[in-house]
Specification:
It catalyses: 2-C-methyl-D-erythritol 4-phosphate + NADP(+) = 1-deoxy-D-xylulose 5-phosphate + NADPH + H(+). The chain is of the alpha/beta class. The chain contains 17 helices and 11 strands. The structure holds NADPH dihydro-nicotinamide-adenine-dinucleotide phosphate, 1-deoxy-D-xylulose-5-phosphate and manganese (II) ion.
Length: about 375
């Protein structure tokens, strides 16, 4: 039996994770749950999965939750410290890191320091503090298993192969809802159009990132830290059907790929049950129904965010943390209709230009840079 703490349990990844857990009561149990403000949803999860510790956004939400529950109460905490305590829970064998944004960094770092294996959905953790997190994973001898669909595909395509035989890794991108939208129309698109992802049903922030191609940029940086590949050996190809989840090309020209229906329960089930596999509930792939798989070059003129992420990775140091924080602020402002779609990469680029880079592996330093970039980007949204 593997006991899980799920950080971000009421979100898209959290719900898919709990669906996998529900299918395997003999295999997985829930030690802890952490989320933000959806106390109602959390109370239902507590009744079904009986965790011993939970966390919500603030003290008021904790009081609200306590009033909703009767019988055996779990320990109730709040804030980032509360989420981190859920990750550190003694009975947890593995932590599913699925809080959205850089808010997931501290709980993930503390879970690693507590010796927990990590199933990582929260890509921002590696974008902000990739060197620190990689060092801690080695130091505490824990497993960092990818949940992100592309990285799970690469992880699976690497199995049984030697690192020195890899030529490059190739991330697939759906291209998002604006793949064929002309540049001048991108000036006018709003959140309701950007939130219509062609293939995946996900939280709002990552869905906007998919529309700008920043999601792919963040994933390039995530791949760099997970698989030790330099920027020049990470490729991106647009594949609108999202059936091939990513690929590894070897030095002999052979390419290994992982295919499947676009449903996050597959990579989640793989991370939870690794090195075994378990039934995930996804639809079986019928290639005769898919019929056509197509591929295109990404357009970094219309979608500069992908280029900015490669720039940040090549520049290194604290640049990726700045890229991420400015993007989080710009995406939130776009969702609030304060700025337009094309302002998102413009704000990220200007914030990066204003940054004086530093090399650091210190958590507080990363957090200070994150705060600076948020303030700088926020001033541009007014
Ligand atoms: N969705 C997907 O298919 C994929 C997602 N990912 C990554 O996984 C992560 C989660 O994405 P997704 O599930 O879509 O996001 P959602 O917005 O759907 O869910 C986010 C979860 O995090 C919680 N949360 C947000 N802020 C805080 C906070 N400060 N403290 C505690 N909990 C918080 C939310 O709680 P509440 O809503 O109650 O506030 C919610 O449970 C992201 O990093 C994303 O990039 C990666 C690959 C695919
Ligand atoms: C499901 C998943 O892993 C997402 O990151 C997905 O890849 C987003 O699709 P895009 O390829 O459009 O960014
Ligand atoms: Mn992905």
């Amino acid at each position: 039996m593997k006991s899980l703490s799920i950080l971000g349990s009421t979100g898209s990844i959290g719900l898919s994770t709990l669906d996998v857990v529900r299918r395997h009561p003999d295999r997985f149990s829930v030690a802890g749950l952490a989320e933000g403000h959806d106390v109602e949803a959390l109370s239902r999860q507590i009744r079904e999965f009986n965790p011993s510790i939970v966390s919500v956004r603030d003290e008021a939400s904790a009081a609200q939750l306590r009033d909703m529950l009767d019988g055996n109460l779990p320990e109730i905490c709040w804030g980032i410290d509360g989420a981190a305590r859920v990750g550190e829970a003694e009975e947890a064998d593995m932590v599913v890191s699925a809080i959205v944004g850089a808010a997931g960094l501290v709980p993930t770092v503390r879970a690693i320091k507590a010796g927990k294996d990590i199933a990582l959905a929260n890509k921002e953790t590696l974008v902000v503090a990739g060197q620190l997190v990689s060092d801690l994973v080695r130091k505490h001898n824990v497993r960092l298993l990818p949940v992100d669909s592309e990285h799970s595909a690469i992880f699976q395509s690497l199995e049984g192969h030697r690192t020195e035989d890899i030529e490059r890794i190739i991330l697939t991108a759906s291209g998002g809802p604006f793949r064929t939208t002309p540049a001048e129309e991108l000036l006018r698109v709003g959140p309701e159009q950007a939130l219509k992802h062609p293939q995946w049903d996900m939280g709002a922030k990552i869905t906007i990132d998919s529309a700008t191609l920043m999601n792919k940029g963040l994933e390039v940086i995530e791949a760099h830290w997970l698989f030790g590949m330099p920027a020049d050996r990470i490729g991106v190809v647009v594949h609108p059907q999202s059936i091939i989840h990513s690929m590894v090309e070897y030095i002999d020209g052979c390419v290994m790929a992982q295919l499947g229906a676009p449903d996050m329960r597959a990579p989640i089930a793989y991370a939870l049950s690794f090195p075994e596999r378990c039934e995930s509930g996804i639809q079986k792939l019928d290639l005769t129904k898919v019929a056509t798989l197509t591929f295109e070059e990404p357009d970094t003129e219309r979608f500069p965010s992908l280029r900015l992420a490669f720039d940040a990775l090549r520049a290194g140091g604290t640049y990726p943390a700045v890229l991420n924080a400015a993007n989080e602020i710009a995406v939130a402002s776009f969702l609030d209709r304060q700025i337009g779609f094309t302002d998102i990469p413009a704000i990220v680029e200007k914030t990066m230009d204003a940054h004086k880079p530093e090399n650091t592996v210190d958590l507080d330093h990363y957090l200070a840079v994150d705060r600076w970039a948020r303030e700088t980007a926020a001033a541009m949204t007014l």
